[in-house]
């Protein structure tokens, strides 16, 4: 029998309430969604392109890459997903996978039945709107990633990714100049359409601005990294209130 895991669902509730106004009753409805826990080892896929599912996947811990694949099997990572993200919330209305999902490090996933997601959205229109806004956020990130791969050079692509993660690893309201990011150079290459060798060379050109070592990122010069990455944080803010949709300024 699926069970609600309030502690882990708290991450998702916080993500929603950071961008949407929900009452305490609505928040509790999120926290009591039924879940089933699975553990996925690093570099293992847990959802496949065109696979039909009856649940969406919430990340409790770890990092997930959403990917597409060419006929040769070469992959393009189209997004990194972090704890608190439902990586395929859209699957509640389109249950056939439009991309694969892979654990980039050891990851814990909570599977939430589509029926439960549709049910809580039907009972609470504000939750349905919050889900809609969450999917819009994912679409905004995807658009930036397309521009990143299609219109920026290698050094700029990587700088942009590290800037994005500096905000998304925090609370979407401040810049973290230190954060855990346990991905490999191969995975970074799949995200930036670069070979691991090219990633390595490009990271060396960024060492005065940031370093990544042992799965940990240290940003030494945020302004410089943002400038190199052509990074504007506005796309990461998806609040209900227009006055809260400006650029992020706080640096932690």
Written overview of the protein:
It is a single chain. With 252 residues, the chain is of the alpha+beta class. The chain has 2 domains: 6-125, Sandwich (Jelly Rolls), CATH 2.60.120; 152-251, Winged helix-like DNA-binding domain superfamily/Winged helix DNA-binding domain (Arc Repressor Mutant, subunit A, Orthogonal Bundle). 38% of the residues lie in helices and 22% in strands. The chain is built from 8 helices and 12 strands. The strands form 4 sheets. The protein has a 4-stranded antiparallel beta sheet with strand order 2-6-4-5. A 3-stranded antiparallel beta sheet has the order 1-7-3. Strands 9-11-10 form a 3-stranded antiparallel beta sheet, covered by helices on one side.
Shape-level CATH architecture of the largest domain: Sandwich
SSE run: HHEEEEEEEHHHEEHHEEHE
Q: Find the structural class using helix and strand composition.
A: alpha+beta
Sheet-strand content, in percent, reads: 15-25%
